[in-house]
Design goal:
This protein is α/β, with parallel strands linked by helices and 406 residues long. Helices cover 28% and strands 30% of the residues. Helix 6 packs parallel to helix 7, helix 9 packs parallel to helix 10 and helix 10 crosses helix 11.
Length: 406
């Protein structure tokens, strides 16, 4: 065994296991492990080999989790040290500089940036970090300090860092959820501008890291459909699609969400953009409201469906399909002949083929023809790593023209 890996415990996987890993994935599950040789603590680096001793690389081990090992490198002769981590962080930033607007973006996207278990979003001059894996959590201070220095090289000064490691999945790693400032406190209502729209992002109490950056260019894509139009934005959250419609010159926009807190934030964002005269918001359950709008004979030029993930596991996909079919069916009924439907799924487990079929079934149910305008995925700062489990590919976004049979 080489000198780089010789100091680590050795994990040997079972014969026939590791198919996802060998196909490019980053995870080894607990039921794939045959034996472990050497002393270790959860969070330590281990050397991984196949059933026959063939080297597969190095990763962090944590037997508290079903995902027992998160791979850091496929190479056996690389040392995962501070210089290695800094290289990964720099590569992540250089990629963003090439592909996206840097004013607000996801700077590090876990496995897709070869830093498994950690996500860092940049909102103007604030960073928000979500650390969900024990091994990478140990490197969190180095990652953040390195990132701040790299940003300074490009003239970007970070005034504060907030941690949002409060997801339940952290408990599955044997870690306590945590939420709070990393360093000096600051105003956690951060103003950003995206696609010409201004928002106040609540990094302390907003969902996940405070704002959904993955839909940035999908929001931009609907702008050209909206000038002079009547628009309905379902599951509006803090108003992002609705405000893009409004700033593009929509005649009227109604945004709907079940969260009163989100609606209050959406109204605040509308005022920030001087759009309150034509962009309004209503707190309501979308599943209940759409049939009511239909019964009133309401019709819209553009209907946008941006629901939360109806399934977060493969076991609940069937129920999720029912939910997606229902909202798409109801949404299509509210689109004028020749109008447009923007619809998406942010669930990894709702695979593209199943989502496509579900929309098709909804269209058949209301006897509408769909003409696909475009199909999009998540923004480029959320890169899709082609791997065994495709864990970084989750967002599917369609724009259709909805036509009646003639």
């Amino acid at each position: 065994m080489d000198t780089a890996a010789s100091k680590f415990p050795v994990v040997r996987i079972k014969k026939g296991s590791g198919r996802s890993l060998k196909a490019g994935g980053a995870w080894i599950y607990d039921n794939e492990i045959d034996q472990i040789t050497g002393d270790y603590e959860n969070g330590d680096m281990v050397f991984v080999e196949d059933f026959d001793g063939y080297p597969l690389g190095q990763g962090f081990i944590n037997l508290n989790s079903t995902i027992a090992i998160r791979m850091m490198t496929r190479k056996k002769d690389v040392i995962v040290d501070e210089a290695f981590i800094k290289m990964r962080v720099r590569n992540a930033w250089e990629y963003r500089k090439a592909v996206t607007d840097l004013s607000c973006c996801r700077v590090i996207f876990g496995e897709a940036d070869f830093l498994p278990g950690i996500v860092i979003d940049k909102f103007s001059d604030v960073l928000v970090v979500e650390s969900l894996a024990l091994g990478i959590d140990r490197w969190k201070p180095v990652i953040l300090e390195t990132l701040k220095k790299i940003l300074e090289e490009d003239g970007i000064t970070i005034r504060g860092i907030y941690e949002r490691s409060d997801a339940k999945v952290r408990c599955q790693e044997g870690m306590k959820p945590y939420k709070g400032f990393m360093g000096e406190p600051f105003d956690t209502k951060v103003e950003i501008t995206e696609n010409g729209v201004r928002y106040l992002v609540d990094v302390q109490d907003g969902q996940k890291t405070g704002f959904f950056l993955d839909q940035k260019y999908n929001r931009l894509a609907i702008q050209r459909l909206c000038p002079g139009k009547k628009v309905l934005d379902c599951f509006t959250h803090t108003g992002s699609f609705a405000l893009n419609a409004g700033i593009a010159g929509a005649a009227s926009v109604l945004g709907v969400d079940a969260s009163q807190l989100a609606i209050c934030q959406a109204r605040e964002n509308a005022r920030l953009n001087h759009l309150e005269d034509r962009v309004s918001f209503q707190c309501a359950d979308v599943f209940e409201l759409l049939p009511q709008l239909e019964a009133k004979g309401e019709q819209y030029d553009v209907v946008i469906l941006d629901p939360p993930a109806f399934t977060k596991s493969k076991h609940s996909v069937k129920n999720a399909v029912k939910g997606y079919r229902e909202i798409n069916l109801r949404g299509m009924k509210l689109v004028k002949d020749g109008g447009y439907l923007a619809t998406c799924s942010c669930s990894h487990f709702m695979d593209p083929e199943r989502f496509h079929k579900t929309i098709q079934e909804a269209a058949a149910g209301v006897r509408r023809r769909l003409r696909q305008v475009e199909f999009r995925t998540q923004a480029a700062d959320h890169p899709i790593l082609w791997s065994g489990e495709e864990s970084s590919y989750y967002l599917k976004f369609y724009i259709f023209q909805v036509c009646e049979e003639k």
